[in-house]
# Entry
Amino acid sequence: MLNPFRTTFGAIFHAEILLNTRRVAPYVMLALFAGNAWLWTAKGAAVHYDWAINCDYFIVRNLAGFQFLTLPLFTALIMADPIGRDFRTGIYPLIFSKPVRRSTYLTAKFCGNFAVLVACMSAFILTMIVLQAFPSEKMLVQPFRVWPFFKYFFFYAVISHLLIASISFTVGTLTRNPKIVYGFIVMLYPFYIIYQLQFLKKLPDYWRHVLDPLAMNAAGDRVKSVDSVTGYIGADLINQMVFSPDSLAITNRVFVVLASLLILAIVYFRFSMIERGGSGADKFALTTIGLDSDSEWLVPAQADAIGETNAIAVRPLNPIDLPKVGLLTDGIRSNLERWRAALAIELRLLKIERGLLIILPMALLLCVVALITFPPPDGPLQTAHYAHRTAEMSLLFLVAIAIMFIGEAMHRDRELRIEPLLWSVPAPNWIFLLSKFAATFLVSMGFSVLLSIAAIIVQISRGRSPLDVLVYPEVFLLILAPTVAVMVAAALMLNVVLREKYVAYAVSFAVAIGLFYLFGQGYKHWSYNVVLYELWTPADLFAPGLKRLVLLRIYALAIAGLCILIAHFFFQRKSKSRST
Amino acid sequence: MRDVSLDIQAGMFGLLGANGAGKTTLMKIAATLLEPDSGTAEIDGIDLIRDKHAGRRLLGYLPQEFGVYPSLTAEQTLDYLARLKGVVDKRERKKLVEVLLDRVNLADARKQKLGTYSGGMRQRFGIAQTLIGQPKLIIVDEPTAGLDPEERVRFHNLLSEIAGDEAVVILSTHIVADVSNLCGQMAIIRKGEILASCSPYEATNKLKGKIWETSVLREEVNALKAKLQVISSHMHEGRVRLRVYALERPNELFELATPTLEDYYFTVSREL
# Structure
């Protein structure tokens, strides 16, 4: 019998596992997921409501939260790039010139990375299992069990994320741009919430279960089936609940697996291992041999010097003297000029970012949909309510833009290997840092402006008067600008300090998720809630609340300034390696 | 790097060494992009470790491997780099970019995105950007690696033209012919140590009367290698042509040969 590890599939599968063991991301995920499980088990609802931490209900409930709140972005992190990486590193001709079938290549790549993902995910469930043996005083534990944890883990989390992994893999493979996948997955959150609220909720129970790809209602619906009025039942009953998958749940999971296979079929049919000639290739050929053969010269001196075999007919270069130019290498004017140049380039590069081209319209669309369905309270502060709603709603997207695009800007020069050219010019470090900061800040603010305009249009079209147009710029300058500044500055600092792009992404998102989790739990003191999430009301835009708001924003800007200073301090403009 | 001290006059200077000899490390230190663990790095009286900014003012650097923004054109990127270098006057900058692109035969491709450039065009673009701002020190690290023969010759012409009376061009390479064709001065580096520093003329002169050549059967090579200091051997018409370093004629099979820079390189690097 053929040893699967000696097949092509086995080789690629093994290589993917090996590559992932060399990455930081899986280890960060293991730590985060274990920490997450500990936090939700030791400090979460089970302790509060006296549920056993190993009862079926709590396991399923925890897994639902885990697979929706924490996991999708990490799934994208692992699954978006395995094929793109081969192209980026240039190893693909070596692989594709071997007798490897497209199906084998794709399947092994997918399976290898999905195995890594599942291994990382299992840190969550393993921590829950271990916590049974080491409970704190407040934790209620039933007799030690293992099988239900794995059963629900595979039934809910693994199968649900098979779908998200398939989407990430397919989009990442076909676009070869992981940023598009990250944008796509960020969009998944609001999309899924809207899908649940606007679509699934209105369907009969059967379809509601079958068409829910993440099976998020499994735990809640079981409780409601016991008490359909309040949806609340006592801890004793909760601890006795058994979640044997019924035919509906199995149908749902089969549906998810089939959808995953269908999505993977798309990548199979669309992906090609053969380069196709296109307009780019034509241009390349034209410019490479575009010299006029009639005007080629033989340069005798060079031909003699390099020997007969290398005597090549070449057209001499134009002997033109370079013009003398004035150089201004020091002083404010010179540095401002450099900063403007760097900013213009950064903006130009951001403008053509495909990820941005997808995220901005989608974010705008989702925000507008949410604004249309927003019912503001009656009263004279209609504009303030709309502006408040707009600011709160855009926060999620602004976080994503800040983290993803500052990360992109900070690492682009290294990835494109243009750093040696840029770093050998006499320009101070702050020019490179502040140009990237300013470009990301301006893009975020541009998004906010567009959203504000959309909000005004929605408000007018819904006849919500009075319209006080000046409130929007006030929110823009007072709330959004400092919020964006502090988020971009913090992401900039993390990228400089951590140096590795994906580590910076993971830590940035973890910090953001952690903070929003704290805010959600009611911990939203102004000292760490610098984005003012749920810390201001529409009434604060007017005296007497305005003064407090201004002070809080000065504080946020000070934090932003501090982050930039730290970034500047740690920014190292030198090579990491000593290649020879 | 170990006790590297080079005194370089204006013109082209070749830094010759095998892969892994430390050429790029030395170039990166000179380009202020790498700090030595200890010691000093000085160019023209400027301390490159303490005053990198001053060093960068007189520097033009073409790394061994460099990238570009693929979505920007050559014109846009050169304009950007010129602004970073301190060419603040817009008209001067425009003229400079135009002349630079003309100088490296990229005028027709100035509106073309850099991502579509061939390897040779990209190297020519690289050399154009090193010339911005009248640098006194131009560092080109393995510039002809990966170029086709035609581009290589074109690149040699360009390099020899830019090394004028005022600028120093340091050419780091492992190709001996590049140094013998282009450089008035040279050094040989191995394991981070400078083994020799002289002109190519002096180098070959030192070996006059000491290089002997013969053509033998393949079976005889090992015996000769055991007895003599063989510098190089290569196949020619089914026989092996051996070049040997010896103060006197080894035997009647050997003829006196004209020394080449390659002979000198092998002699020095093998410490013969």
